[in-house]
Amino acid sequence: MKQPEQEDFMRTVISLFLGIAVLAGCASPAQQSAAIQREMDRMIVVYGPACEKLGFTVNTDPWRNCVLNLSNKDDFEQYNIYPNYRPNWRY
């Protein structure tokens, strides 16, 4: 069995890591908004020219939808971990 000192130490370490994890997830609404704006700016730089070449007028709703759709498509392809996964629906 563990000694009481070891158990207290482990509880302290676990509590410390949980506290750090909770604090790391904290961000002000202004910080969250700035992060979203940076991501949108990146998507416009990356996908905007392609949507323009596809015939969409820049800074219109269809152009913005094109940018979002191309970004989502790339995200899906990038994060698709199991491309050949086929669930067995019989069970």
How would you characterize this protein structure?
With 91 residues, the chain is an all-alpha fold. The protein has a domain of 53 residues. Helices cover 71% and strands 0% of the residues. It is built from three helices and no strands. α2 crosses α3. It starts with a helix and ends in a 12-residue tail after the last helix. The model has no long low-confidence stretch (mean pLDDT 78).
| Strand composition percent | under 5%
Task: Outline the low-pLDDT stretches.
Answer: none
Task: Report the count of strand segments.
Answer: 0
Structural class designation: mainly alpha
**Radius of gyration, whole Å:** 23 Å
Instruction: Bin the helical content.
Output: over 70%
Assign an overall shape. elongated
State the distance separating the first and last CA atoms.
Answer: 44 Å
Put simply, the count of helices is 3
Order of helices and strands: HHH
- Main sheet? none
Average pLDDT figure: 78
- Oligomeric category: single chain
